[in-house]
Amino acid sequence: MLELKNITFRVRDEGEEKGIIHDLSLTLPDGKLIVITGPNGGGKSTLARLIAGIETPDAGRILLDGEDITGWSVTQRARAGIAFAFQQPVRFKGLQVIDLLRLASGKQISMGEACDYLSRVGLCARDYIDREVNASLSGGELKRIEIATVLARKAKVTLFDEPEAGIDLWSFQNLIGVFREMREDMKDRSILIISHQERILNIADELVVLREGQVTCHGQREEIMPSLIGTASAVPDCRKGQTGEGGERA
Amino acid sequence: MIQLDEIQRRLLREVADLHEVPEGAYNIRSNSRSAGRQSTANIEIIPREEGNGLTIRIKPGTKHESVHIPVVMTESGLKEVVYNDFYIGEDADVVIVAGCGIDNCGNQDSQHDGVHRFFVGKNAHIRYVEKHYGSGDGKGKRILNPVTEVYQEEGSSVEMEMVQIKGVDDTNRTTVAELGKGAKLVVRERLMTHGEQRALSVYDVRLNGEGASADVVSRSVARDRSYQKFDAKLLGNAPCTGHTECDSIIMDEGRILAVPGLEANDVDAALVHEAAIGKIAGDQLIKLMTLGLTAQEAEEQIVNGFLK
């Protein structure tokens, strides 16, 4: 179980201090798929980065299974079972897809296992396993590889920051399948997805609406979803193309 | 019969991946003397009369054979200049593995300057691998100054892999190439310097024949207080294509100077230079840390991958 208690986070921009997260408390239980939605600039990605340890809160505490991990580094949190899929995956010159999958799984996984992770995100393993994770990959390919590395982590808490950003329609459908599969095999694990795609919200157990750095709504999907449809917090597929950035190469 | 001690064997493994006496033609030079030599029916290795190098003749049409000419030095204070000339016959296709390993435990500098000249016949293809490695904890420097000259006839192709990852204190590498009609040169250089090391790498590639092409790519990492200079000059003297690239990571107080040089003397010469120098990107480190690596482990993975 992941607990956020009274989290506050501010940034300094041109000498001025700006609050991003305000006294936020949230409990994310095990065995659930939780989607955090809300308007742009509401602090969703920052919240994911705070959980992963990339940012440090100015106040408040973060607890994983009751243990205070607020002061833990990114590495410590990763080892404790927090996985993070970046919104904009990182490129590496020289590192191959197989290298990333092996680092993610923490062991020398076989080619067969590595290929299985790639197949799950709809990539033909034979074509990708030896590819360098560099600029020769399109945004969509990179995103799928990012998701494959997170699958290889088999983490206790898996965070996805806008997994749909930069992904094509086929991958998007595949992505929903990946989440469904993960959910079936979850038990004491949990998945936290930052998204405002209606179809992703539709597979959530719980929804959290974050607005101006505060939780304005948190509950079962069935209770919350009706109030979100048609707002910027639940964008239907037909508007997906507007997210644009880093789309699949033709 | 080759007599080598454990340090010499280790150096051989580092520079030539040799675990035992290689198959095919070879000459192993140890502390300025030949420790073993073998010619084959198609590849003749002849020592120069002056004792300071070799003439290597590869018969036309020789295929799938290799030549190993590694050098190891373990005596402190040795200084030598060695001249090796390779004559590669028409249509031959061979692998040539050179390389020098210096172990210097003494206080005097050890220096090996190898001058390699390649005369590559029509339509011949060679793959040339040269690795440099230094070890030993003496105060004496380990110095390597290789000069490589390549003369390529029509339709020939040369692939060169130059690697210097560890332990060489000072190096001044010069590579000169002249390419005839349709000749192709591909160079992949990987370099890492650390401590107070200094490495200069100069290329002067002349594309003289129509349809000649050259692709020179250097990937390097400068750590600690080391210094590198990459000076790559391409001359397009005919309708040709040329590309040089210097891609570098700087760490600690490392410094790198990249000097692009392109000279087009023919209106149909197409020449490109790319250079990028920078530290490891913060998001690369963070990404690997989110996979459970420490910052230091992440850095090692990034550098190893970059130089792979």
Rg of chain B, Cα atoms, Å? 20 Å
Shape of chain A: globular
Largest interface: A-B, 25 and 22 residues
Radius of gyration of chain A, in angstroms, nearest whole number: 18 Å
DSSP strand (E) fraction of chain B? over 45%
- The share of residues in helices of chain A is 25-40%
End-to-end separation of chain A: 42 Å
SS elements, strand count of chain A? 10
Which structural class should the secondary elements of chain B be placed in?
A: mainly beta
Low-confidence stretches of chain B: none
User: Can you give the helix content of chain B as a percent range?
Assistant: 10-25%
By CATH, the topology of chain A is: Rossmann fold
CATH architecture annotation name of chain A: 3-Layer(aba) Sandwich
Low-pLDDT runs of 5+ residues of chain A are 238-250
Helical segment count of chain A: 9
Indicate the mean pLDDT of chain A.
88
Number of strands of chain B: 21
SS summary, helix count of chain B: 3
Explain how this protein is built:
The complex is a heterodimer of chains A (250) and B (308). Chain A has 250 residues and is of the alpha/beta class. Helix content of chain A is 33%, strand content 26%. Chain A is built from nine helices and ten strands. In chain A, strand 1 and strand 2 form a beta hairpin. Chain B has 308 residues and is mainly β. In chain B, strands 1, 2, 5, 6, 8, 10, 13, 15, 17, 19 and 21 form an eleven-stranded mixed β-sheet that branches. In chain B, strands 3, 4, 7, 9, 11, 12, 14, 16, 18 and 20 form a ten-stranded mixed β-sheet that branches. In chain B, helix 2 packs across helix 3. The radius of gyration of chain B is 20 Å and the shape is globular. The mean pLDDT of chain B is 92. The chains are: A alpha/beta (250), B mainly beta (308). At the A-B interface, helix 2, strand 6 and helix 3 of A face helix 2 and helix 3 of B.
